[in-house]
Amino acid sequence: MTDSPRPTRPFILRIGGHVLMRILEALALGWVVWFTVDVILLAGSEDPGATSSAWLHFVKNGAWEFWEHLALIDDSAVRSGTWWLVIACLALVSFQRYRPAMAKFLES
């Protein structure tokens, strides 16, 4: 068998692909963190029926609430807090992905 050369993508497409994937990972991680914290806070509420079904809460509220706070809420403090969560998640996923490359670059 002959080895076929791997097609090279333009530099801008490679960088754009990395950026897009990290942003999608950050949004997904932010959504999971948001829902997890929401369920934990709901578990401490005084409403006895509040914790009866985490799945029902997810379907009613958690699936949409994070995305709503990112763009649709008029309160700028709430919206900016949600975006700060996404930026923190972006820093985390970027660090996890590029840590070996950064370590190799800094140690050489």
Structure notes:
The chain is an all-alpha fold. The protein is built from three helices and no strands. The chain has helices at 11-43, 54-71, 76-107. Helix 1 (11-43) crosses helix 2 (54-71). The longest helix has 33 residues, at 11-43. It starts with 10 loop residues before the first helix and ends with a helix.
Features:
single chain; 108 residues; mainly alpha
Rg result? 20 Å
Q: Which residues form runs of ≥5 with pLDDT under 50?
A: none
* Terminus-to-terminus distance: 37 Å
Q: What percentage of amino acids are in beta strands?
A: under 5%
Q: What is the average per-residue confidence, as pLDDT, rounded to a whole number?
A: 81
**In this structure, how is the largest beta sheet organized?**
none
Q: How helical, in percent, are the residues?
A: over 70%
Number of strands: 0
Helix-strand pattern: HHH
Structural class: mainly alpha
Shape descriptor reads: elongated
Query: What count of helical segments does DSSP give?
Result: 3
What's the helix and strand layout?
Elements: H1 11-43, H2 54-71, H3 76-107
